[in-house]
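Student: Send me a single protein entry containing the residue sequence and its fold in token form, directly below this note:

Tutor:
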Amino acid sequence: MRRYLRETADEGWIVDLSPEGHRADVATRIFPEVAQELCIAIFVRWRNSPRPRTEQQTAKVRHLKVAGRREGKIERLTALRLDDSEWRECATGETDAFLPPGSDLWESCPQLRDLMPWSSRGVTPGRMWVYAPDEETLHRRWKRLLAADTERRAEMLGHSGERTPADNVPPLPGVASHERITLAAEQRTNPQTVRIGFRAFDRQYVLPDSRLMERGRADLWRVRSDRQIYTIEQNAHPVVNGPALVFSALIPDMDYFNNRSGCARPLYRNAAGTLPNVTPGLLPRLSGRLGMRVVAEDLLSYIAAIASHPEYTARFQDDLEVPGARIPLTADLCLWERAVAIGRRVLWLHTYGERHADETAGRPYGRVLLPLDRPRCVAEIPDDAEVMPEKLAYDPVTQDLWVGSGRISPVPRAVREYEVSGMNVLDKWFGYRRRHPAGKRRLELDHEYARRWLPSWTTELLELLNVLGLLVREEPVQADLLYEVCAGSLITVTDLTAASILPAPVEASRPLKATSDAGDGLFDL
């Protein structure tokens, strides 16, 4: 549509009515009932406009933000003129977003997709009940599904038009096969459950059954391994605060980043971990510029150090209005090595100690603990159904986090307020485990959930608090690094284009064929 409007119109004006973002305070909304972002778009073609047009004659599009409370926005719109001094010219690429171009520094840096071309949307089940924060709930749901006849099973699936009990679909790679049995004929009583990345830093369980999912994303399951790391990027909406990238050792849901879609970029294109998801020629080029061997794990560690912290998002706030991260690539060997060391720790934290573990470097496998002032459960979170926790409460003075009548302390304010682009991590994590769990529960099996607090959730909450606590401590070091990298010599888009590394070949953005996992070729298409 953007290409069509630029080719057809002569001029355009975009008025952003919701710079405060999705689900902003009601007082800022033009229409109080509408939580989505809104804009006004005006495109015109003048009577004497020349036809046919050259590439240089595409529409000139301008952009303007109208912020504040509803009354002020209406007043501003009433007085708005086409010659207003606040209009800013938009980027001119034929499919560029109708937004002002980024800063010179931003535009000179390669996009994440330039470095790691292949991405997937993440698991898209289309029904909530295939996920749960505990395995027992999934087993109860499965038991109820098996007890139902075919008609009831169809109702339990929901009438989405994508899945029915009669569908004969292949199983997801790497999980227990259902041998192409239809869901209508299924009688097995012990379903497999697998840990999955549900939301940022929230590890839940899933029934990994393609018959239950709209889009199981077989390509992501095919590359799952104990070496794989998924980089999750918000490429559909602006990032407003917190880290610009998050990471998971587990296959992520499509809404993993901040509950608002996004994409996942696996580190490897195969389960063996022998084919990196890196633009061909990039690693040798970096090795040559830096004077040392650079491997895929180093590149991802560098990316994590540079972009996975709040200062990156704050510095490039305006640029990030056009979704998609860009990575300043240093040409300085000392800065590169510093970044890689920091990034390994960041990845270790994001994956709960399951990746980049190194006991000698203070990164034990699966044990992420603050060295001092470690949060402890000083008042037990009760596991009786009658007192199932309903809300979190926090005292910033005592640093006490109340989970119902249970209490964990100390929890620093920065940990309690830790957000990923507007999504408070602790609130979101707790929301799926409280007395009345969060989420749209439209199907029968959605209402089958744990009725009491599980002791394992207390353990998981303490693990999460340790992870966030250590990430907060890394942020000043990452901020200093970013400042020095941006002030120094960079490897730019121009450099990579001149070296024929960019643009990345189309084949690099596609998953490998299922049969190519054990192959030696870079691409098998």
Remarks:
- The chain has 15 helices and 18 strands.
- The longest helix spans residues 455-487.
- The CA atoms of residues 126 and 160 lie 8 Å apart.
- The longest strand covers residues 11-16.
